[in-house]
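hiii so um. not sure if this is the right channel but i have a protein structure encoded as tokens and i wanna go backwards to a sequence. like what aa goes where. can anyone help
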């Protein structure tokens, strides 16, 4: 196919080993040196030994997800200067070792958020779910964030209270862990940690956070460019303000703004259709077209919403994302790049998340919610089939070359 089909791998402790990933049909592996603490340098030696593990399994390490941005950089205080210098060294090292697509995010405090990691679908499989009432229960009554109540309608607060009152201690604990302790390389986060991280954002406005991202990019993008790498930013997930924090990469204006911050091919986007689709006013296909030449990595996924602002992760070809139109646009973009002679014309893509299904339901809970094998493989198979169909119908000549 045109896209570089990939699968995420969380390293040697991942329940889904590289040998299984190879059988999914993926060629590329999306991974990170999760054992290195945020902010520290990734040495060439570490990168090469990790890369060798992947290559020995017959795969290639085509994308880093993520080279994490330390909180000090996001708030631009503490040891941010040192961490930015370390980031540059890591970028240079990755470039030298031939790993060129570097994913990061600029979400304050917590990365992506879901409130139910085992939402039962009618067919018995499980999806990840974001529920306003549950999140409100978490931040108002468990985290007890000052001012949290004011971010919700009285109706939602009442529902959240009733929900909180109905929960057992262990259910409260599961909700908390599911929200704050899901991030590889950043495990063991406590409520206290979240409170002290939040305190650092107390007076921070959206403009401040944007200025901090702009500053970070002005430092690292030229280095990425020199190293032959592309930095790709992951959208806010969900794409709305949470925990009273500013969010700066959620909609089409943010996309345009980001691209203008550094007008360089090394300043790119990880186009995550699922994350962007968490907002109903985002037109995903239009958004892709608005930034297509700078998309360095694709996460393909969809969501299904209800009227209260809740959503769960739908099957990859269902839900609110028009995956057919998106795939058509992705194929056209790749062919356009090919015609231009761009070396990076084939965009790495991974099926983002997947349902827990079949015997994955009986295995010990996956340490990385959303990343069991079978559901993701189903997603990958559907997306490959869709791509094949789009190419056969609209660009049959390219199939002969592949
Ligand atoms: C969740 C992921 C995110 C993503 C990071 C990128 O499954 O999509 O954790 O990897 O935000 O920095």
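sure thing!! here u go:
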């Amino acid at each position: 196919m045109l896209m570089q089909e990939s699968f995420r791998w969380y390293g040697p402790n991942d329940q889904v080993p590289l040998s299984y990933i190879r059988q999914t049909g993926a060629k590329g592996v999306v991974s990170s040196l999760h054992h290195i603490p945020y902010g520290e340098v990734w040495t060439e030696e570490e990168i090469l030994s990790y890369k060798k593990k992947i290559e020995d399994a017959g795969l290639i390490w085509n994308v880093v997800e993520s080279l994490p941005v330390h909180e000090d950089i996001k708030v631009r205080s503490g040891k941010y200067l040192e961490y930015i210098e370390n980031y540059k060294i890591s970028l240079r090292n990755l470039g030298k070792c031939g790993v060129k697509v570097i994913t990061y995010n600029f979400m304050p405090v917590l990365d992506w958020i879901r409130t139910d990691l085992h939402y039962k679908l009618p067919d018995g499989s499980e999806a990840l779910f974001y529920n306003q009432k549950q999140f409100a229960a978490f931040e108002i009554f468990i985290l007890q964030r000052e001012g949290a109540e004011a971010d919700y309608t009285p109706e939602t607060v009442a529902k959240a209270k009733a929900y909180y009152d109905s929960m057992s201690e262990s259910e409260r604990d599961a909700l908390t862990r599911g929200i704050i302790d899901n991030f590889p390389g950043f495990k063991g986060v406590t409520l206290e940690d979240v409170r002290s991280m939040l305190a650092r954002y107390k007076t921070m406005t959206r403009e401040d956070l944007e200025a901090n991202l702009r500053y970070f990019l002005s430092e690292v993008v030229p280095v990425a460019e020199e190293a032959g790498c592309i930095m790709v930013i992951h959208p806010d997930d969900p794409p709305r303000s949470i925990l009273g924090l500013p969010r700066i990469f959620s909609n089409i204006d943010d996309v345009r703004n980001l691209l203008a911050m550094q007008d360089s091919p090394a300043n790119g986007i990880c186009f995550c259709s699922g994350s962007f689709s968490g907002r109903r006013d985002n037109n995903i296909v239009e958004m892709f077209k608005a930034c297509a030449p700078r998309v360095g990595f694709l996460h393909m996924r969809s969501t299904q919403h209800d009227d209260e602002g809740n959503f769960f992760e739908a099957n990859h070809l269902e839900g609110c994302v028009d995956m057919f139109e998106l795939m058509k646009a992705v194929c056209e973009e790749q062919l356009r790049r090919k015609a231009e002679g761009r070396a990076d014309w084939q965009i790495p893509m991974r099926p983002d998340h997947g349902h827990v299904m079949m015997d994955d339901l009986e295995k010990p809970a996956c340490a990385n919610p959303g990343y069991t094998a079978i559901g993701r493989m189903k997603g990958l198979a559907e997306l490959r089939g869709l791509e094949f169909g789009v190419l056969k119908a609209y660009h049959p000549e390219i199939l002969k070359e592949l």
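oh and The longest helix spans residues 206-227.
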